[in-house]
Amino acid sequence: MPESEIALAALSALWLPALILGRLGRAAAPLAAAAGAGLFWLALPAAGSPAALAVPALWAAASCYWVLSRRQNGPSGAGARQASAEQLKEAGERLALAKKEFNEAGGREKKVLLLYSAMKYLAEAVDHQAAGRQFARYIGDYFGTEDFAFYLLGSAGEAELFACGRDSSSGFNSPEGLRRAAGLPGKGPPEPFAADGKPPKAGVMVSHAGEPVGFFAAAFPSAAPAAELAASMTSFAGEIAFAVRRLRLFREVEWLSRVDGLTGVFRRGVLDERIDEEVRRAQAFRTTFALLIADIDHFKRLNDGYGHQFGDFVLKRVGTLLRESVYETDFVGRYGGEEFAVLLPRAEPEGVLRKAEAIRARIEAENFSHGLESVRISVSIGVAHFPRDGRDAAGAVAAADAALYRAKESGRNRVVDASQL
């Protein structure tokens, strides 16, 4: 073949793929490359040697690459990249929205399960203290806070703490703290409130059929408005109101079974259980407690002279005076007949004697009216300490009883400590 024809074949093989690639889109690039390869193959015999076409072949490949690069990086390629970036951004936004909706749905499902579990547990609860602890966990998980308190309200409006979180910085764990949070002075029943701040706080009434059965107060770590949080708490309270009422009724029945109906103090069986419990606690923590046994002097004479109705009035009033004379952590029970017992945990002997003398003096100063007549009564009190005066519950009771007997022998209306025997 003449040299001119060989040169023409080589040039055709060199530039035809580039021209085709320059005209065609990226989808036709493989066809153009195949056509170029065929031309190289046809030109190979004419060139006489594969080495003769090495340089134009490499140059053709570089030309193809250059054409493709220009098409990709040119104005049309930039537009495609921008469109792809926008599509990716839009897809990312849709994915983020779907993820958010999924998480919110999961959160709503979790709250529904927590609410159902709380209602079921309260409806089936028998152990009051265990129910309070478990209910506190449900509230903490549901609202995401540990600064809260839930109260049961009695028929007279008295508030009994039922469940509370581990954080007590807002002071919700006392009725007085609830009133302070609501901006109310002194003592009284809790009232609803919503206070913005850091943290926002709210308190809502729990009512069933228009009857207040509980009160729920909480502080939240979120920055949401207090009114919005109060609305969420009100919704929660409405769902569990029936279970709370059932729990309150059960609590009242339990209370009646443990409390003496006449005097309002705990029955003898509950008193014995509490003494045993205090002994175990004192032994475990190496602490002490004091036991007072008080007996109304000449009670039989009162009954015979003024009648049993007046005697019942005296018993009831003495029970009230005893409960008013001690702290909430102390315990007052009916020991038997006209005798009462008072447990004072972690009490020191000197302070106990002062407390016993104050009780004796208060009852002596009390006016017990019978018609137009004012009747004065007195009590004798025996005092014992555990473990000083007894190594077990029976020993402590026996020591206090012996001290009471000595007080009566010594003229009544006095306090005698077991250490004086």
Could you give the topology of this structure?
Blueprint: H1 3-23, H2 29-47, H3 54-73, H4 75-124, H5 128-143, E1 147-153, E2 159-164, H6 175-181, E3 193-195, E4 201-208, E5 211-219, H7 226-258, H8 268-285, E6 289-296, H9 299-306, H10 308-324, E7 331-336, E8 339-345, H11 349-365, E9 368-370, E10 373-375, E11 379-386, H12 393-409, E12 415-417
Parallel strand pairs: 11-12
Antiparallel strand pairs: 1-2, 1-5, 3-4, 4-5, 6-8, 6-11, 7-8, 9-10
Helix pairs in contact: 1-2, 1-3, 3-4, 4-5, 4-7, 9-10
What does this protein look like?
The chain has 421 residues and is α+β, with helices and mostly antiparallel strands. The chain has 3 domains: 3-73, no CATH class; 117-258, GAF domain (Beta-Lactamase, 2-Layer Sandwich); 268-420, Alpha-Beta Plaits (2-Layer Sandwich). The chain has helices at 3-23, 29-47, 54-73, 75-124, 128-143, 175-181, 226-258, 268-285, 299-306, 308-324, 349-365, 393-409; strands at residues 147-153, 159-164, 193-195, 201-208, 211-219, 289-296, 331-336, 339-345, 368-370, 373-375, 379-386, 415-417. Strands 2-1-5-4-3 form a 5-stranded antiparallel beta sheet. The protein has a 5-stranded mixed beta sheet with strand order 7-8-6-11-12, sandwiched between helices. Strands 9-10 form a two-stranded antiparallel sheet. β1 (147-153) and β2 form a beta hairpin. α3 crosses α4 (75-124), α4 packs parallel to α7 and α9 crosses α10 (308-324). It is elongated. It starts with a helix and ends with a strand.
